[in-house]
Design a protein that fits this description.
Number of strands: 21
CATH architecture of the largest domain: 3-Layer(aba) Sandwich
Keywords: Oxidoreductase
Strand order of the largest sheet: 14-15-16-13-12-18-19
Helix content: 25-40%
Bound molecules: nicotinamide-adenine-dinucleotide
Structural class: alpha/beta
Radius of gyration: 23 Å
GO molecular function: oxidoreductase activity, acting on the aldehyde or oxo group of donors, NAD or NADP as acceptor
Protein name: Aldehyde dehydrogenase
CATH topology of the largest domain: Aldehyde Dehydrogenase, Chain A, domain 1
Number of helices: 14
Largest sheet: 7 strands, mixed
Family: Belongs to the aldehyde dehydrogenase family.
InterPro entries: Ald_DH/histidinol_DH, Ald_DH_C, Ald_DH_N, Aldehyde_DH_dom
């Protein structure tokens, strides 16, 4: 697999290779190409050539192609789910669900391809003004490792629907499904060069892509630190950038909520994908009156979760790498040294692989690092609030503003708090509610973009305005 996928062909690596491991065992399962600036340039040129032809296809044909790709992926779900599981360590059923979500992205945006209307704007007699939404050309997609194919399809599907081509740089830890996807794109009937994949390190291939002058739009999904570097690199060529960054999302639980139901939601919120979702509900803010009882129910549930290799499909897989394991484990020390307390017990972890058992910290105050920083592992930071104002104040006490969960039976309170918290995505009484049709994205350090829904198409289109003087009748 040590090749890029450029212009419909497997292009060998010139800069050496990178080992890819199975996080469940720590064993190397593949080597992929370590792309450099020249590889990225080759891919952008191929995408550029193809973009010139692709923009001339009819919107209906673009929809048909995307639908064919959806069917092709649907037909090989098992293969992709297994590959994603091997590469990320996530439980097989979760990988299956994510691949199902990829099919949904392709189907949803297939339906949108021929509905990308402009507007006519009345500006008075003797003139006609209208807007046209045109493809931007070559779109670049820099993808993280936590949900590799899902994040790829989330941005590539609307980019293709809008008539663009794509160059994808998957994360170095998890490049396998992206490479296989590029082949599937060809199998579904797209001409070579439509979707190109360059593998490699972020500072090399990723930077080269962000800094390339031939990119019409760049979608970056990853951490805040890298997001800043990507924005700086893209600034040189005024490349528009969609940033989808990290989170430290709170779950606010009011005293009238159904505590059993909420405990289940909170545990799913902070442990799903072993805490490696950007919108993980990694902070619990609980009404002081129910705090102790809720923490008890949460720790009981969390400590009952089974851990094991993704392919065995237990509740939790490993963290993605040894480096990430060290980073997440470090927050246990940090939390204890800051004065927070570990609640309940933590289960044993398998000997091999990068496993990490869920941990719940109580007595967390807003100044603590475990309350403010994205850990990206199954560690929950719990604090109590005294009233609604206090809950909102605690919820907003981080630099992030991605998700927020609100649990209450009082609809007035739910909608009031939804209006007050600074978050891009608010979920009431169901954490992770939503789907492909609803816009997703953050405020503050969580980013500037919106993915999913029809609004996401705007990032892959440029708006042209045409104003015409209409002469008087000559008859
Ligand atoms: P990361 O920022 O380390 O890497 C993301 C991608 O950027 C990778 O492909 C990497 O190779 C590349 N990269 C690294 N340095 C680069 C550089 N200098 N120039 C260009 N590209 C570079 O992030 P990660 O650790 O892979 O992913 C985890 C992060 O992603 C978390 O912060 C998580 O919250 C975030 N995330 C956000 C969303 C969202 O929708 N908001 C979704 C998934 C993940």
């Amino acid at each position: 697999m040590s090749t890029h996928h450029i212009d419909g062909a497997r292009v060998p690596s010139r800069g050496g290779t990178i080992a890819v491991e199975d996080p469940s065992t720590g064993e190397t399962i593949a080597h992929v190409a370590r792309g450099d600036t020249a590889d990225v340039d080759l891919a952008v040129q191929a995408a550029r050539r193809r973009a010139d032809g692709f923009r001339l296809t009819t919107p209906a044909d673009r929809g048909r192609l995307l639908r064919a790709l959806a069917r092709a992926l649907d037909g090989v779900r098992d293969e992709f789910a297994r590959l994603e599981t091997l590469d990320t360590g996530k439980p097989l059923s979760l990988a299956h669900a994510e691949i199902g979500g990829c099919v949904d992205y392709l189907d949803y945006y297939a339906g949108a391809a021929d509905k990308l209307h402009g507007e006519t704007i009345p500006i008075g007699p003797g003139a006609l003004a209208f807007t046209v939404r045109e493809p931007v050309g070559v779109t670049a997609h820099i993808v993280p490792w936590n949900a590799p194919l899902s994040m790829l399809c989330r941005s590539v599907a609307p980019a293709l629907a809008a008539g663009n081509t794509a160059v994808v740089k998957p994360a170095e830890q998890t490049p396998l499904t992206a490479l296989r996807f590029a082949e599937l794109v060809l199998e579904a009937g797209y001409p070579p060069g439509t979707v190109n994949v360059v593998t490699g390190l972020g500072a090399e291939a990723g930077h080269a892509l962000a800094a390339h002058p031939g990119i019409g739009s760049l979608t970056f999904t990853g951490s805040v630190t890298t997001g800043r570097a990507v924005l700086r690199a893209a600034a040189e060529h005024i490349t528009p950038v969609v940033t989808e960054l990290g989170g430290k999302s709170p779950q606010l639980v009011f005293a009238d909520a159904d505590l059993d139901e909420v405990a289940a939601q909170v545990v799913t919120g902070f442990t799903a994908n072993t805490g490696q979702y950007c919108d993980a509900g990694s902070r619990l803010l609980a009404d002081r009156r129910i705090h102790d009882e809720l923490v008890e129910r949460i720790t009981a549930r969390a400590s009952a979760l089974t851990l094991g290799p993704g392919i065995e499909d237990r509740a939790l897989g490993p963290l993605v790498s040894a480096d990430h394991h060290r980073r997440v484990s470090g927050y246990l020390e940090i939390g204890l040294s800051e004065g927070a307390r570990l609640a309940g017990t933590r289960q044993e972890v398998p000997d091999r692989g990068h496993f990490f058992a869920p941990a719940v910290f109580t007595g967390v105050t807003p100044g603590m690092r475990i309350a403010r920083e994205e850990i990206f592992g199954p560690i929950l930071a719990v604090a109590a609030f005294d009233n609604e104002d206090h809950a909102v104040e605690l919820a907003d006490a981080t630099d992030y503003g991605l998700g927020a969960g609100i649990h209450t039976r009082d609809i007035d309170r739910a909608l009031r708090v939804a209006g007050r918290v600074r978050a891009g995505y608010v979920m009431i009484n169901e954490y992770f509610a939503g789907g492909v049709a609803v816009p997703f994205g953050g405020t503050k350090f969580s980013g500037t973009g919106r993915e999913r829904g029809l609004v996401a198409l705007d990032s892959y289109l440029t708006l042209k305005t045409v104003v015409a003087r209409v002469g008087p009748s000559c008859g």
